Amino acid sequence: MINTSKYQTAFLQYRTDQIAAEKMHDPDLTPEANRQRQAEARASARAKLREAIPQRPEGPDPRDAVIDALAPTTADGIAVLAHQRAKVDALMDAGRNILQVIQQADVTRLAAILDAAETSERVLSSSDPEGVQAELRGAVFARLADLGHEDAVKAAEAHTDQGATTAWADALEALAGGDEPGGAVLSAIYRHDVDAYRGTFGLTSSPEESRTLADAQKRAAQDGIRERAQQQADRSRDLTGSDR
Q1: Residue 83 forms part of a structural domain
Q2: Does residue 69 share a domain with residue 35?
Q3: How many distinct structural domains can be found in the chain?
Q4: Among 119, 147, 175, which residue terminates a domain?
Q5: Do residue 72 and residue 34 come from a single domain?
Q6: What own/partner pairs with CB < 8 Å and gap ≥ 24 does 204-208 have?
Q7: pTM metric for this prediction
Q8: Does one domain contain both 72 and 106?
Q9: How large is the average pLDDT for residues 114-122?
Q10: Which domain covers residue 190, as residue numbers?
Q11: What per-residue confidence (pLDDT) applies to 51?
């Protein structure tokens, strides 16, 4: 499991900075000057948060290599898979569905199921052959991991870590843009590390602090709208200038 403590720290610091900016008030300054100071403090908080956004993972899904490695490379291996495919067909003719077969299969039978999926009449005649094949690959991989297949276990951990990193990147980026993270993003963070979620997005605040945070988030949302509008205006000006 990846260590997300730096992302948690960044979130908590942003939350603290939001509250501080909202409470910022100097009686010696005009209302306009105080609002300007608050806006600058909020902008500084968002800038610091942006620096903590992790780079999103790139490259292929680590699970794919494990699945692809099940394909036979020798004549004997192909013969074994043909034998297993016949057994799988017999089980399904007897009333089993393919997911039930997968849940009780060993590695060799799993390889046979994958090998058959590309040309299976049952798969090709479905309304969504590609979707069915993807579901089969996912079920086969899950079974491999359950069996303790070393490469599958490592790939599952890598895939989970990739998902967590992406979720934290999405969450922090949303906050830095003045938005609230979506439910799917928060669910991904929760599934990866319940304690990390509870210590950040799941924190319970006092009524006063909750009101302050709500007001701060409203201002952050307004800031985000203004920033995006300014960025769009800058891009339009650049394009207009380059066309001249």
Answers
A1: yes
A2: no
A3: 2
A4: 147
A5: no
A6: none
A7: 0.80
A8: yes
A9: 81
A10: 5-52+166-243
A11: 96
45 and 68 in a common domain: no
What average pLDDT does range 144-163 have in this prediction?
95
- Residue 40 falls inside a structural domain: yes
Lookup: tokens for 103? 């849940």
Residue 71 lies in a domain: yes
Is 161 within the bounds of a domain? no
User: Which three-class secondary structure state does DSSP give residue 206?
Assistant: coil
CA distance 27 to 71: 74
> 183-222 burial string, b = 16+ CB within 10 Å, else e?
eebbebbbebbeebbeebbeeeeeeeeeebbeebbebbee
All residues at 6 or more sequence positions from 24 whose CB lies less than 8 Å from its CB, including other chains: 34, 37, 38, 41
The span from the CA of 182 to the CA of 203, in Å, is 17
The H or E element containing residue 125 is none
34-92 pLDDT tens trace: 999 999 999 999 999 999 999 999 989 999 999 999 999 999 999 999 999 999 989 98
177-208 residue pLDDT tens: 989 999 999 999 999 999 999 999 999 888 99
Tell me what percent of the chain is helix, strand and coil, each rounded to the nearest 5: 75, 0, 25
| Opening angle at CA 25, ends 20 and 30, nearest 5 | 145
